[in-house]
Design brief:
- By secondary structure, the protein is α/β, with parallel strands linked by helices.
- The chain folds into two domains: about 130 residues, N-utilizing Substance Protein B Homolog, Chain A, CATH 1.10.940.10; about 210 residues, Vaccinia Virus protein VP39 (Rossmann fold), CATH 3.40.50.150.
- The chain contains 17 helices and twelve strands.
- The strands form two sheets. Strands 5, 6, 7, 8, 9, 10, 11 and 12 form an eight-stranded mixed beta sheet that branches. It has a four-stranded antiparallel beta sheet with strand order 2-3-1-4, with helices on one face.
- Helix 2 runs antiparallel to helix 3, helix 3 crosses helix 5 and helix 5 packs parallel to helix 7.
- The protein is globular, with a radius of gyration of 23 Å.
- The structure holds S-adenosylmethionine.
Length: about 425
């Protein structure tokens, strides 16, 4: 059938269905898959947003949805494409404001387009209608661990203990807020945008609106950055005129903070494509930095006053925003990334002036990429000393400091009176000083 003649609403569901399959098959970020597959569907921005919402909530609740489907299917019907189609259907019925019949009918229609599912219409109809009928029972299951793969559960329980680990898992079920980092007066922008001024100085939006339509976007008065992600660059205490390297810089949220503080910044990233995005982002913000597309391990520069190393990591601290992370990574990725982080830390230490400062951070909940990494680094580098972070540097959020004085934010932290606006990304940051003169 010509796509222009097909039933309204099929395009976004087809995109969500294919995106779920490809993300799981290729173990790549959902955002990248949506960017790659989206243009062929030629969707309106509203339908594109619907496709994204369906795919995201499917990943956010993949465990619960998978269990609900397994309970309602016999073993013979466990074809992967069929399961993914049923999963996006169930996600709409259980978690989105979509009429049940639209979720069911579009799934039945989409099955017609795939040869081996041509005869699955009756089954899809029956299973999804049952999910709709039994919605209360499915949603009543409060086991937050259902939506967390075992490799993550084990790591969190062992590092944080049962109680805190369960709170992390529960926090991942909620939709995150959108936070802004403001170049000028954050309180004034919070008022102008109707947002909340957070203790760390970020502004949290209270309405979901198109970011580009908000006042201040065009003139580059602020940029989107989770409040936890905005802390590490501040911990570096960038000073005007200081030579600072941002070793893993793209897409540039933290580079922008360093540049806005007046530092002379070299933004380094291995990916030329991502560095181009950094340049575009900084141009909108009227900020200027030098850039270099190179593997930071190969960087040859005279020593810097300060270095920010926002190292590549498992990104499990961003599961609220990118729930696909939980289902596309595993313990092997963690081990490889931890080895790369160690090498980048060693390189960063070699690029620092005596007395220079280094902030190492990762948007990860895993101790291997945080606390354990920082201790191992100090053991390898007697010339580097930890400079503990103090509560006043992080808006008094003492729960986000480790006994050693590192930053450890969790998605269940920043519990605001408005519970729906609570939470922040999981981040680790440690600050070191080069003590040799
Ligand atoms: C966590 S992201 C950085 C986010 C960025 N600091 C921000 O705040 O917007 C990690 C970045 O490290 C880059 N990267 C990975 N390995 C690298 C390496 N060996 N040298 C330089 N950059 C690297 C990736 O391309 C990616 O852009």
């Amino acid at each position: 059938m010509d796509q222009s003649q097909e039933q309204a609403g099929l395009g976004p569901r087809r995109l969500a269905w294919n995106a779920v399959t490809e993300t799981l098959k290729r173990r790549v970020p959902l955002d990248d898959v949506l960017d790659e597959l989206g243009p062929a569907e030629n969707l309106s921005s509203r339908d594109e947003a619907l496709a994204r919402a369906i795919a995201i909530v499917t990943f956010r609740r993949l465990g619960t949805i998978g269990q609900a489907l397994r309970d309602r299917l016999d073993k013979a019907a466990r074809d992967e494409r069929l399961l993914h189609l049923l999963a996006i259907g169930a996600a709409q019925i259980l978690y989105l404001d979509v009429p049940d019949h639209a979720a069911v009918d579009t799934a039945v229609q989409l099955a017609q387009s795939e040869h081996r599912l041509k005869h699955a219409g009756g089954l899809i109809n029956a299973v999804l209608r049952r999910v709709a009928r039994e919605r209360e029972a499915i949603l009543g299951k409060q086991d937050a661990w259902l939506d967390t793969p075992t490799w993550l559960e084990e790591g969190w329980v062992s590092h944080y203990g049962e109680e805190l680990a369960a709170k992390i898992a529960a926090a991942h079920r909620a939709m995150p807020s959108v936070d802004l980092t403001v170049k000028g007066d954050a309180a004034a922008w919070a008022e102008r945008l109707g947002g909340i001024l957070l203790p760390t100085g970020s502004v949290r939006l209270t309405e979901r609106t198109a970011i580009r339509d908000l006042p201040g976007y065009d003139e580059g008065a602020w940029w989107v950055q989770d409040t936890a992600a905005a802390i590490p660059a501040r911990l570096l205490r960038p000073q005007p005129g200081e030579r600072i390297a941002d070793l893993c810089a793209a897409p540039g949220g933290k580079t922008a903070q360093l540049a806005a503080a007046g530092a002379d910044v070299l933004a380094v990233d291995r990916s030329a494509k991502r560095l181009k995005r950094l340049e575009e982002n900084l141009a909108r913000l009227n900020l200027t930095v030098a850039t270099r597309a190179i593997d930071a391990e190969k960087l040859d520069e005279k020593p810097f006053d300060a270095i920010l190393l926002d190292a590549p990591c498992s990104a499990t601290g961003t599961i609220r925003r990118h729930p696909d992370v939980a289902w596309t990574k595993d313990g092997d990725d963690l081990r490889k990334l931890a080895a790369l982080q160690s090498r980048l830390l060693d390189k960063a230490a070699s690029l620092l002036k005596p007395g220079g400062r280094l902030v190492y951070c990762t948007c990860s909940l895993e101790a291997e990429e945080g606390e354990i990494q920082a201790e191992a680094f100090l053991n390898r580098h007697p010339e580097m000393k930890r400079e503990p972070i103090t509560p006043d540097e992080i808006g008094g959020m003492t729960e986000c400091l480790t006994p050693a004085g590192d930053l450890r934010t969790l998605p269940c932290h920043l519990d605001l009176p408005d519970h729906d606006r609570s939470g922040l990304d999981g981040f680790f940051a440690a600050r070191f000083i080069h003590s040799e003169s």
